[in-house]
Amino acid sequence: MLAWLLVAWVGCDSRSVGSDGALDSGREATAPDATYDCACADLAPQDSAPLDVAGADLAPGDGAGGDQNTSFPAVFEGLWLVGWSGGLNHFSWVRFAPLGSAMKAKAYINRGANIIGNAPLLDCDGETTWWIGAAFYTTYLDLPSSSCNGDTTAAWVFSNFGPTDALAPAALLRADVKEQATSNPLYAYKFPDNWCDATLTTCKKPF
């Protein structure tokens, strides 16, 4: 009887089951390592578990850049291509300089003149500033003039950070984006810093 109880206890012990790190056609990240408890009836791995945007890393080898920190606000720092596609491309490049402890940091905008068939999301170029407010995973981009997109600030709410897709295979991350004022859906790709020059005057083609 004692031996049977010992076997039952060992078999019911919690254990960690690791992911295999593989990607499905470059689109879906395998779920992070999961711990299963014997109190749970379903011990099947949760392959569709969402990426934890509060600080998870992508599996090594995603896109062109390996692990990417998605913690707020560090995830924004770097080079992003933001916009949407439908008939024409509607994208613009934005480089967010590190924010650190400052209230605002430098940012650079490029309208994406080298993107084929592009009607830019932000119809302007040059140096500006960016910042964050109380809203979680939201960036505020000061625009050089209202000619950029009819306003002087672009406020974007990011979510669902994950591996890139077939549209931009060289990107490090992909995220869903909504314009805060209108809830219009956009999406964004984070690229390696050297994809554009330091002041965002020239960029390689993203697609």
Q: What can be said about the biggest beta sheet? A: 8 strands, antiparallel, barrel
Q: What is the strand content?
A: 25-35%
Termini Cα gap: 66 Å
Order of helices and strands: HEEEEEEEEEEEE
What would the principal axes of the Cα set say about the shape? globular
The neighbouring-strand order within the major sheet is: 5-6-7-8-9-10-11-12
Mean pLDDT: 75
Query: Helicity range of the residues?
Result: under 10%
Rg, rounded, reads 21 Å
Weakly predicted, low-confidence segments: 1-66
Number of strands: 12
Total helices: the number is 1
Indicate the structural class: mainly beta
List the helices and strands and how they pair.
Layout: H1 2-11, E1 15-17, E2 23-24, E3 28-29, E4 34-36, E5 78-86, E6 88-96, E7 104-110, E8 126-131, E9 138-142, E10 153-162, E11 173-179, E12 185-191
Describe the structure.
The protein is mostly beta strands. The chain is built from 1 helix and 12 strands. The protein has one helix at residues 2-11; strands at 15-17, 23-24, 28-29, 34-36, 78-86, 88-96, 104-110, 126-131, 138-142, 153-162, 173-179, 185-191. The strands form 3 sheets. An 8-stranded antiparallel beta barrel has the order 5-6-7-8-9-10-11-12. Strands 1-4 form a two-stranded antiparallel ribbon. The chain has a two-stranded antiparallel sheet with strand order 2-3. A hairpin with a 7-residue loop joins strand 6 and strand 7 (104-110). The longest helix has 10 residues, at 2-11. The relative contact order is 0.16. Residues 1-66 have low confidence and may be disordered.
